[in-house]
Amino acid sequence: MWMPLFLVVFFEARKVLKLDDLGREILRVAIPAALALAADPVASLIDTAFIGHLGAVEIAAVGVVASIINQANKVTIFPLVNITTSFVAEETTVKEVVNNEEEEEEGGAAQIESEEEEEGSEETGESEDESIGSGYMASSESNGSPSIDEITQISLQTYLEENVSPNVINEGEEREVRRSGRLKVPSASTALIMGLILGILQTVFLTLLARPLLGLMGVKSGSAMLEPALKYLILRSIGSPAVLLSLAIQGIFRGLKDTTTPLYATAVCDSVNVVLDSVFILACHWGVTGAAIAHVISQYVMLLILFCKLITHVELLPPSSRHLQLSKFLKNGLWLFARVIAATFCVTLASSFAARLGATIMAAFQVCLQVWLTTSLLADGLAIAAQAILAGAFAQKDYHKARATAARVLQMGVILGHALVVLVGVGLYLGRGAFSEDKNVLLMITIGVPFVAGTQPINTIAFVLDGVNFGASDFLYSAYSMVLVASITIGSEFLLLKSNGFVGIWIALAIFMLLRTIAGFWRLATGTGPWRFLRALDT
Asked: Are residue 107 and residue 47 in the same domain, yes or no?
């Protein structure tokens, strides 16, 4: 029963660093994706460095707000982006297969016509056009075989019935890959509509409930953190539509296996953010207000770049409302919504506990958490590659490629995780002075270094396993397993906070990531759900 686990982890392990077709495909998607994902947290680290020199109260206030915004963004972005990536990858893969099949059949038709022309010319000496017509009619009428058009239609219908999931393509849906030189992908239109609606709702939610949310995070009316936190939260909420639309577009590009475009857009966005931080914080002395304004402007710049690039590749107006497939998004989005609520609540609760321990501990926790999330998200590059490639493999029912892809990205994840231990440990210890000048804050950061660095291998595998299971569209299992993991984690956070304080919070977060890894492995280990095929494949 446990054999599939070892098959996936160790399958063709000697090829883990080999640049074969699969290796190149993974790296082509993973490297730009990892850089793009890391670019935004790096910008947040730069923001933290700028704000950190304003004082411990300011950085603590921004840390609380960052946790709130992270929770809100994860709840909306995570389901949207991951569903979009999977569905776009499935749709484009199926349409490529169907298009190739049609091209092959057209080529076969041309060859048949050519042969009939030669035979007709030799036997009757008829003209070229008559020869083609008589040869074609003779072959179809004499033996009762279907015409070329009928063969194409039958072949296409058989493929759709036997190989395409109802979630990928609906009966009667147009099967042309390109229209007016642009891709026709219904999931792209749906993702943009959902992103816009969710972005507006998030702005309204964060603005109207700013004070209550800060109160839940431990920032009460008498706290010195309240005023800067309130300003920062309200201003940052204005950027929510840009954030969600940008991430929706990134999901579309990921599904198309184009992670280079989001990388360029993110690099420009972060560069704008850093420049504006320098102007608004250092030159204009606007403090946390300037940091928030800089961040919002940079997000809208990123949205503009991505949207202008998208409309040159994808047709965004579907032929009719039924092509939007809203029910498909909502059904799977519900499972991922539950999953991300459970996952991010654990991190948000940890931030809340840190805030209750005082501004010094919260400031140190914010620095450690930003580094922890930034480096761990490097593994999301592998996760995105796994999701996009596996979604295509499952759509084609290419289970051999699915197994090979899952194995390769997990093996790469192991190597990356151990490399990050050294990189993060040395980097955070030597560079902690860039985030604060407060000796007490620096002391607490030093205490957090072993936890931030030591959990990197676990974090990496957990993120990669997320991509593997999302690529298999195993959203239901991902949801209920995460709810179980979160329930255990929340209990451990309450227990460890009372006895160990700052260290207890980090122990609880380490337990959280370990349980996530075990839950992700369990599905493959038992060979259940979409991974049932592992039992049937030859070892």
From this structure: no
